[in-house]
Specification:
Length: 1133
């Protein structure tokens, strides 16, 4: 299927999004789902070395420049302080009593973790209370002793960002008396915070099957998360949480921001062996967290300790372990796949008890054939397409190297850390699964490199039993990346829309035969993102108040160049496609987008962000906690100075085993580079676009009224005969007394009219001849300028035809226009106002049930629209309000709502098994069809009085009376709805429908079981509703709700956007492992994993074309990968 969209053509995947203006035919068809295509699978391996050398142009910065940058940055980090500092430690607190319940003061409490090299001691106060703060997550031994009592010890596992209560009862005894070991378990109930969250533990990271060994794949364990595997995994829609796109989430690594502000999601990838654990806060997070309206993904990495520990692993995938789930029943072999993933990590002491290190390295190499299907075409056309595409049908190549080094020092009351993370990755011949039906020539290459340099110092100042905790952090991130066509030799992109003969409809779009996409429409683009961040946070407990306040600063500097677009769309009959060269087979639309000069394609974005916050966690009673907070955010590129975000949360322990929680807050998003890159006022590219209608063979070759598309959509232009009415000549039209089918008041112009414009005595130009500026004098006897003048006179439209850049007869169907030139409501920053209420209940100390209701108003979503499109355009044709030329606006035009019930069960590991499960039922709507997309209806404002002049009857259409909206709404003769005059009309609501960032039902269960003989089995099962999609308009004619001459192809007249859903997604990933004890310290594990064990044909794309004769409307046209096996080996010590 080919759904027309509201943007220019864009690259497959996320990078280089184009300027967001709507066009007559905007060509975003390129990377939407098209008629499916299937390869002849070849198992030959391309030359990786040559490919890698070919694509290092932008990323290969000089070694000297890199060395100078690193030296300067380390100097800066030593002299300065911190990034967007967030909570990366936890607290242990409790009360010490004797056997009779009397409080014990002066007891010595010590928390030690040999693995982390951490030891901290405090003394209980007069109320027997103790508190040990700023502890890294890990396993601790808590030792309590007091003169006259026996010693108590217990071991607890402390997870990230928790305050854990450990109450201790000491038994009376002599000094140095017996030690009492207590089975200490961290409570699963969270009584200290109203936030809803999930912590992915080290056991889960190490022992659950992780597809691709990307630790963020475990986001699927988080209740309320939708997994869209058909989307680009690095894009905005891959892992939305509670209805918010990935770009609205914020990602932290040891408190350092790790967010890709261009495409959304995490920026730098990390080796799985590097990650200790991570917490995902889905709602109700405190004021210390900013620049996000979605979730907070708070990750901590491993650290060295007093003993040397290391791990090495190797994972192998091969299609011999896989199964085919192709939609083509004739295909039984699994697609070609080779994947090798090797990693090593080591940590230990530099100076015992003082100085530690941890480092890791990983190399990934994957060759994966993209499963696709050639469209069903006539044998000759099929042969032509395969001849073009087969040489490009090679596996997609993925190469990535990851390196990490972390140093920690314990210097008195200072805990310092420094870290470096470096990744370098390239992907060749790539297409996301949702675009897997596109032909191989449409694919892209992309490369990226990330560098993170971080420094942190956590200080304990004042009384050791109740200190000030001051955290300072500083970081630098550099992220150069580039994107380019994988096969530039195709010379740009073309969409071929084939039609049968006889032509079935005067204007059928999309074609019943679907479309064939050949080539990539974009030129190469590059971005160099650089971020410098500083922050300082202080925390102190005052009685029952735990107060924290701080400052965050982030400087953003992005330079690069935007892609230019040169895209063709061909409308032709199958016989003409076979008989003529592609450029001459029929009527063509040409979109040309780019800067007037090379400098106009450049991107130079700058932004200074400052954030201030204060929060107070107030224990009103022993079982009631109130969290109060206020945050202020300011981006220099926006005028908003009033972004105050209050946060309020309450937890009430109704019983020791039941907690009720609720929270309310406003959460501001940030300066989104993915949008600003197209806005010149922010430093984005200043590109202009034009759209031309080309007539390579004069008026011959149009399969319907595509040659008269200006009249059809814009309400003006000539009416040309075409193949639908059998290519009538002027003589035949006169003899039959015919008028225009589209407008009875207009004459119909025969297909031979232009061929009869010749010099005196010269023979007419033969039918179906290619006419160009280079051959017109030979064909007609007239000079090119003479021919143009006489042709325009012949059709009664002076200036209609010109010789375009291609040399063919051309009409500038949409005049040149530029990037957004109007900034509206820049004092409004995107934000979410949300609340939740829920309950937790502990059935046993190892089993907790949670139930939460969430509501969100997602407000002021940024986007673009034509701000001065006249309302009357929807009735009488394209017109603009003053100043009379198109004005493209950028502002907060869009909004959404989200409601969900989320249930979760968590059973921690005991009795040889661990289990987690969740279910969410959600309802979410929005009116935004894409991050950079203009709406179907651009008008926002009070409706003026308009009159539809009506339409006289023709041979194919009945008469339509004149109407006005002065006293009520009506449906115009062209089918557009016209609201009553004087009412307010919000055009973007025409696109209101189910949000693509939410799924109605999501169920997941994960767990692991320890078996005899050190076998273990683990798995993740997920079943969720299918993704939403819109039905394409099936005609007749085209749908254009606001009359601006453009269509996105969505049938909003008879159905809502995203009204339909794909078949459900069901998946099971399993791992079977066996451990071998080589020695007391050395362990070896052997794994065998299956992903998609059931080999289900889970949908990646849907045929949404009601006229489709390929897969059929509503059927799956592309599937996610079938069953894949993986072998792994790991040795640890």
């Amino acid at each position: 299927m080919n759904t027309l969209q509201n943007l220019n053509w864009k690259t497959t995947g996320t990078g280089a999004r184009r300027s967001p203006q709507r066009h007559l035919f905007p060509f975003d068809l390129f990377h939407q789902e098209t008629t499916a295509m299937k390869p002849n699978i070849t198992h030959s391996m391309p030359s990786v070395g040559n490919v890698e050398k070919k694509h290092r142009r932008y990323l290969a910065l000089s070694r000297s420049k890199m060395s100078i940058s690193i030296l300067a940055l380390f100097t800066f980090l030593i002299l300065s302080i911190s990034t967007t500092a967030q909570t990366t430690t936890s607290t242990i607190e409790g009360t010490i009593k004797d056997a009779n319940g009397a409080l014990i003061s002066g007891a010595q409490v010590k928390a030690t973790s040999p693995t982390l090299g951490t030891e901290r001691s405090v003394v209980s106060n007069a109320e027997g209370f103790f508190r040990i703060v700023a502890l890294p997550a890990g396993t601790y031994t808590i030792t309590v002793n007091q003169s006259g009592f026996g010693t108590s010890t217990q071991v607890i596992e402390l997870t990230l960002n928790r305050t854990v209560t450990v109450d201790v009862q000491l038994q009376v005894g002599s000094v140095g008396g017996a030690t009492v070991d207590v089975n200490g378990e961290t409570p699963l109930l969270t009584t200290e915070t109203p936030a809803t969250s999930a912590t992915i533990t080290p056991r889960q990271i190490a022992e659950l099957p992780v597809n691709g060994r990307n630790y963020l794949d475990l986001l699927q364990l988080v209740p309320g998360t939708a997994i869209n595997r058909q989307a680009d995994p690095e894009g905005d829609g891959a892992n939305p949480v509670l209805g918010e796109r990935s770009g609205n989430n914020n990602f932290f690594i040891d408190g350092h921001e790790n967010k890709d502000t261009v495409n959304g999601g995490a920026a730098a990838p990390f080796n799985q062996e590097t990650i200790s654990e991570f917490q995902v806060i889905t709602a109700g997070y405190k004021a210390e967290f900013g620049q996000a309206s979605g979730a907070i993904v708070n990750v901590i990495t491993k650290s060295g300790g007093n003993a040397f520990h290391g791990v090495g692993s190797f994972f192998l995938r091969n299609d011999a372990l896989d199964s085919s789930n192709s939609l083509d029943p004739a295909v039984s072999d699994a697609p070609y796949l080779r994947r090798y993933d090797s990693s090593f990590a080591l940590g230990g002491p530099v100076i015992k008890d003082k100085f530690y290190f941890f480092g890791s390295a990983e190399r990934i190499a994957e060759d994966r054939h993209i499963d696709f299907t050639y469209p069903p075409l006539s044998p000759l056309l099929d042969s032509i397409i395969r001849g073009i595409e087969n040489p490009f049908d090679t596996p997609a190549l993925f190469r990535e190297s990851r390196f990490f080094l972390k140093l920690n020092q314990e210097l008195g009351r200072h805990s310092l850390s420094q870290q470096v993370n470096y990744t370098n990755g390239n992907v060749y011949n790539y297409a996301p699964l949702s675009a897997g039906n596109s032909l191989p020539s449409t694919r892209t290459d992309r490369g990226s490199r990330t560098l993170l340099l971080g420094f942190a110092d956590t200080m304990l100042l004042g009384d050791t039993a109740d200190p000030w905790i001051v955290t300072l952090r500083g970081a630098y991130r550099g992220e150069p990346s580039d994107l380019r066509p994988a096969h530039p030799e195709t010379g740009g992109g073309s969409i071929i829309n084939p039609y049968t003969v006889p032509v079935a409809s005067p204007f059928q779009f999309p074609s019943a035969l679907g479309s064939v996409v050949v080539g990539n429409n974009l030129t190469a683009s590059a971005l160099d993102q650089q971020y410098t961040s500083i922050s300082a946070i202080a925390n102190k407990r005052f009685g029952d108040h735990d107060v924290k306040f701080g400052w965050n600063y982030l400087y953003t500097k992005v330079d690069g160049n935007a892609s230019r677009t040169l895209a063709n769309q061909l409308f032709a009959t199958l016989p003409d496609i076979i008989a003529f060269a592609p450029a001459e087979a029929g009527i063509r639309l040409l979109l040309d987008t780019g800067g007037v000069t090379p400098a106009d394609d450049e991107i130079h974005l700058r932004n200074h962000y400052n954030g201030l916050f204060v929060q107070d966690d107030w224990r009103i009673r022993h079982n009631i906690n109130v969290s109060l907070g206020l945050r202020w955010d300011k981006d220099s590129e926006f005028e908003a100075n009033h972004n105050f975000a209050p946060r309020l949360g309450v937890t009430w322990a109704v019983t020791p085993k039941t907690v009720i929680r609720g929270q309310f807050g406003i959460f501001y998003d940030q300066f989104r580079l993915g949008i600003a890159r197209n806005v010149p006022q922010f430093g984005g590219a200043n590109q202009v676009a034009s759209q031309d209608l080309l007539f390579p063979r004069g008026l011959y070759g149009s399969p319907g009224f595509f040659s008269s598309i200006g009249l059809l959509l814009l309400g003006s232009g000539p009416c040309f005969a075409n193949a639908w009415n059998n290519n009538l000549t002027d003589a035949q039209i006169t003899a039959a007394g015919l008028t225009c089918t589209l407008a009875a008041s207009l004459p119909m112009i025969g297909v031979d009219r232009l061929n009869n414009v010749v010099a005196a005595g010269h023979a007419p130009i033969p039918a179906n001849s290619v006419i160009s500026i280079n051959n017109i004098q030979a064909l007609s006897g007239l000079a090119p300028d003479q021919y143009l003048s006489q042709v325009n006179t012949a059709i009664g439209r002076p200036g209609y035809f010109v010789w375009g850049s291609t040399g063919y007869l051309t009409n500038h169907i949409i005049p040149t226009f530029g990037a957004p030139n109007v900034l509206e409501h820049t004092d409004q920053t995107p934000n979410t106002m949300g609340f939740s209420v829920g309950v937790q209940h502990e059935f046993t100390k190892d089993l907790v049930l949670e139930a939460d209701y969430h509501h969100k108003n997602i407000r002021d979503i940024l986007g673009v629209r034509t701000t001065n499109l006249a309302f009357k355009s929807r009735v009488t044709g394209l017109a603009f309000d003053p100043p009379g030329t198109q004005q493209i606006g950028f502002g907060p035009y869009y909004e959404g709502t989200y409601d969900a019930l989320v249930l979760a069960v968590n059973k921690r590991f005991s009795n040889h098994y661990q289990l987690g499960a969740s279910y969410s039922y959600s309802s979410a709507t929005d009116n935004n069809i894409g991050t950079n997309a203009a709406p179907s209806d651009n008008f926002i404002g009070t409706v003026p009085v308009v009159t539809d002049p009506g339409r006289a009857a023709t041979g194919t259409t009945p008469a339509c009376p004149s109407q006005t909206n002065a006293n009520g709404s009506f449906t115009a003769c062209n089918g557009n709805f016209v609201a009553q005059a004087g009412t307010f009309w919000n055009g973007p609501d025409v696109d209101k429908g189910n949000s693509g960032l939410s799924l109605k039902h999501v169920f997941q269960v994960n767990g692991l079981v320890s078996l005899p003989w050190q076998f273990q089995i683990s798995g993740i099962f997920r079943a969720q509703s299918g993704f939403y999609y819109s039905r394409q308009w099936a005609g007749p004619g085209l749908i254009d709700p606001d009359g601006n001459g453009n269509t996105n192809g969505i049938d909003v007249r008879n159905a809502e956007r995203n009204q339909f859903s794909a078949p459900s997604y069901v998946n099971l990933d399993v791992r079977l492992s066996k451990r071998f004890d080589i020695s007391e310290r050395v362990k070896a594990d052997v794994f065998f994993e299956f992903f998609n064990l059931f080999n289900r044909q889970n949908p990646a794309a849907i045929d949404s074309n009601p006229n489709s004769t390929t897969f059929g409307y509503g059927n799956i046209s592309q599937v996610l990968p079938g069953r894949e096996g993986q072998f792994g080996f790991r040795i640890s010590f």
